[in-house]
Amino acid sequence: PLAEGLGKVDPTGRVPVNRDLSLHGHPEVFVVGDMAALDGVPGVAYAATQQGRHAARTIRRRLAGREPKAFRYVDRGLRLVIGRRVVSGGTPLKELSSTAPRTPVTI
Fold first, then answer.
1. Which of 64, 65, 63, 57 lies closest to 32 in space, CA to CA?
2. Which residues on adjacent β-strands are paired with residue 23?
3. How far apart are CA 84 and CA 48, in angstroms?
4. Is the pLDDT assigned to residue 102 strictly greater than 60?
5. Is the pTM value of this prediction over 0.85?
């Protein structure tokens, strides 16, 4: 319902935004995260974090009288967290190599 209140939504319920993540016709409104529809940007947490930072930088740029920049998503890969006994996804650690790292790994 919130997305629909912002205007047109795409078939997945996401709101089309400008390249700087502002709402079409409302440069003072920013849409970020999995509610923002922007080609090539998935609805994942890493993208949402990057979008939030970009929106904050854009607001600062506008307050300083500078032009906003287009958002650029940087795909940093998938993150796999290996715990004490299982890895993300529920695989028992004993099924992995005994040399498996015990810290988060970006793949």
1. 57
2. 17, 26
3. 29
4. no
5. no
Residues 6+ apart with CB under 8 A from 31: 6, 15, 17, 21, 22, 23
Say how many C-beta atoms besides its own lie within 10 A of residue 68's C-beta: 19
94: left (phi over 0), alpha (psi -120 to 50) or beta: alpha
The answer to whether 55 and 21 are in contact (CB under 8 A) is yes
Amino acid of residue 89 = G
User: In whole angstroms, what is the distance from residue 16 CA to residue 3 CA?
Assistant: 10
Cα 98 to Cα 5, 43, 66, 94: the distances in Å are 53, 34, 54, 7
For 42-97, the pLDDT digits (tens) are 888 889 999 999 999 999 999 999 999 999 999 877 656 666 655 555 444 455 45
